[in-house]
Automatic annotation (TrEMBL):
Domain of life per record: Bacteria
Stated name of the protein: Peptidase S15
Keyword line: Hydrolase, Signal
GO function term, MF aspect, one: carboxylic ester hydrolase activity
InterPro entries linked to this entry: AB_hydrolase_fold, FrsA_esterase, Xaa-Pro-like_dom
PANTHER family according to UniProt: DIENELACTONE HYDROLASE DOMAIN-CONTAINING PROTEIN-RELATED, POLYKETIDE TRANSFERASE AF380
Organism: Truepera radiovictrix (strain DSM 17093 / CIP 108686 / LMG 22925 / RQ-24)
Matching PROSITE patterns: PROKAR_LIPOPROTEIN
Signal sequence, start to end: 1-23
Domain Xaa-Pro dipeptidyl-peptidase-like: 53-313
Length: 580
């Protein structure tokens, strides 16, 4: 989810707070603050804030240069899952667009507070994954501390301090939860974050097993083992049972903006201006999540802008790491724009009433050189029939074994050397036909980790490309495709799992999964759903189709074990944009 400046590997998530009337503020180590009204020099210093339950929250205050009597807004910045706060905005700005925006905010006269989320970095407590009753109250405690200690220098409107926020992934999650709990937020810029963690981690009832593995590993390392018990429970269940337990799903739903949009137990949608930034290639928090965030916040009367760009959370090896995170620049309506400048311009507009770059209502980029300006995200579009297509559900074990048998003896020997002795013997016997294929099941995750990108790609070639639309002239594919699909097949004690996404076959016959996005279907019967949102430039001669998989590494352990034939049929609606 989520780490600031930390590559996700195989996993696969003291100054005292014055919260009470009898508490005494501990002054920051800057003499001018004690003078209550004197000029301030630009400075940065670490503080420790005590949260509602006594948990220490480590933070760094970036204090702007202010003339006597001048006041400034406050901006909070949060880090990603498994990461820690930025203590040096200048050095971290080179690799994190949201930190670069925070640096710009500080240089332009705003207070910036970066902080370690509960359970990470130098903060105490255990990781609850943005629980409103814990991480949410930590955010409130930070604002309380700021008012108590920085109050004479904070800019106010109608009795409340002017507060903004920045952050990517987990650092976007705190903004949505924090602003829902505390009305002091005026403008937020959540980037690459979730709307509903049930959908993020378990779409269609199928665990995103690789992402769950990676998040668990990254969170375990980043928190030094301080994870709430429900997190390993979710990991182990997804790995072993191919299901996430209902109590876990209920809990992560409560930790999502979706629960506030649904008015769960009287919860209310935040009243806050929002500039959402999401990656169309993000296979963890996809475009659909940002579309749902925007719709919910707009229904509550908020000013909402949305930038859809080419970055996002990328799976190591399976996706292009060069487009991970947030793009530093984007093209919208023919203009190249600096993304961090857009972020800080939005904060300036809402917190200072100062115009900077015009932040578009909705910009969706197709690549580094093109992006369209829209009023809303297209949903559905040109309807096309999916003719009945039959394929065989089957175990990953068989596919892995087939691949191993195709390898050269030297390559196979190299793989076996990297396995534990007992695993190496099991694999060698299975490849030689001396052991049952199912004995490989426990070794598949380790084998996948050792395979090259090209070798892994072979495991995903067991797909069917079902043609839907021939592109006759250049145009774009922009929005949320929809589908009405039927899965049919013989009775199976397992609910068959099929993965679908839009594919593009170019004039040379090369097929690619558009934006790397897949939607799972679980169980026989009818499925009506939004496919994952896409944005791509199409060329004349391209052919769009439905790609159907029975296994894909994104869902590494979420597959049907028993080999059975299934048929797929129905309709898909394509959000095609521009002249035909």
């Amino acid at each position: 989810m989520w780490r600031r400046n930390v590559s996700v590997s195989w996993l696969l998530l003291t100054l005292v707070l014055v919260a009470c009337s009898n508490a005494t503020p501990t002054p920051p180590p800057v003499e001018a603050l004690r003078q209550r009204g004197g000029a301030l020099a630009r400075a940065a210093y670490d503080v420790t804030i005590t949260s509602f339950d006594g948990t220490p929250i480590a933070a760094t205050v970036f204090q702007p240069a202010l003339a006597r009597g001048q006041r400034a807004p406050l901006v909070l910045h949060g880090h990603g899952f498994g990461g820690s706060r930025s203590k040096d905005l200048r050095s971290d700005a080179a690799t994190d667009t949201t930190v670069r925006a925070a640096l710009k905010a500080w240089q332009r006269g705003m207070f910036v507070i970066t902080f370690d989320q509960r359970g990470f970095g130098e903060s105490g407590g255990s990781v609850k994954v943005m629980d409103p009753d814990f991480e949410g109250r930590d955010v409130r405690a930070i604002l309380d501390w700021a008012e108590a200690n920085l109050g004479p220098y904070l800019r106010y409107r109608e009795g409340d301090p002017l507060v903004g926020a920045l952050g990517y992934s987990y650092g976007g999650g705190f903004q949505l939860i924090g602003s829902a709990l505390d009305g002091r937020f005026d403008a937020i810029v959540p980037s690459g974050t979730w709307f509903d963690l049930r959908y993020s981690l378990n779409p269609g009832g199928v665990p995103k097993s690789l992402w769950i593995d990676l998040l668990f590993a990254g969170g375990l390392v980043g928190s030094r083992g301080r994870l709430d018990p429900f997190i390993p429970e979710a990991f182990l269940s997804a790995l072993a049972l191919k299901r996430v337990p209902e109590p876990v799903l209920e809990r992560v739903y409560r930790n999502s903006l979706a629960s506030f949009c649904d008015n769960l137990e009287g919860r209310q949608v935040p009243r806050v201006a929002a500039f959402l930034v999401q990656g169309v290639n993000d296979t963890l928090f996809n475009l659909n999540e940002a579309a749902r965030q925007a719709a919910c916040l707009r229904r509550a009367g908020n000013d909402v802008r949305l930038l859809v760009q080419g970055g996002g959370h990328q799976l190591p090896v399976l996706q292009d790491a060069s487009v991970s995170g947030i793009k530093s620049t984007v093209v919208c309506g023919g203009r190249r724009l600096d993304t961090a400048e857009l972020m800080v311009s939005f904060l300036q507009e809402k917190l200072l009433g100062r115009r900077g770059l015009a932040v578009p209502q909705l910009c969706v980029t197709q690549n580094d050189a093109s992006g369209v300006l829209l009023k809303e995200i297209p949903v559905g579009g040109v309807s096309r029939t999916v003719p009945t297509t039959t394929l065989t559900n089957g175990p990953l074990v068989e596919g892995t074994l087939t691949l191993l048998r195709r390898l050269s003896p030297s390559r196979l020997e190299a793989l076996l050397r990297h396995l534990p002795a007992d695993a190496s013997l099991r694999v060698a016997r299975a490849v030689a036909g001396l052991g049952a294929p199912e004995t490989l099941a426990r070794d598949v995750p380790n084998l996948l980790a050792l395979l090259s990108y090209e070798e892994r790609a072979e495991l995903t070639t067991a797909y069917r490309f079902v043609p839907l639309e021939l592109v006759e002239a250049p145009r774009a594919l922009v929005g949320l495709p929809t589908a009405e699909l039927r899965l049919e097949g013989a009775p199976n004690p397992e609910a068959p799992i099929v993965l679908v996404g839009l594919g593009r076959r170019n004039a040379r016959g090369r097929v690619e999964l558009v934006n790397d996005q897949l939607a799972p279907l679980r169980g026989l019967g009818d499925h009506t759903l939004e496919l994952v949102g896409v944005s791509a430039q199409l060329s004349a001669g391209d052919e769009l189709g439905l790609l159907v998989f029975t296994f894909h590494p994104q869902y590494a352990t979420s597959y049907t074990l028993l080999p059975t034939p299934v048929t797929v049929s129905g309709r898909v609606s394509l959000p095609l944009y521009g002249a035909k």
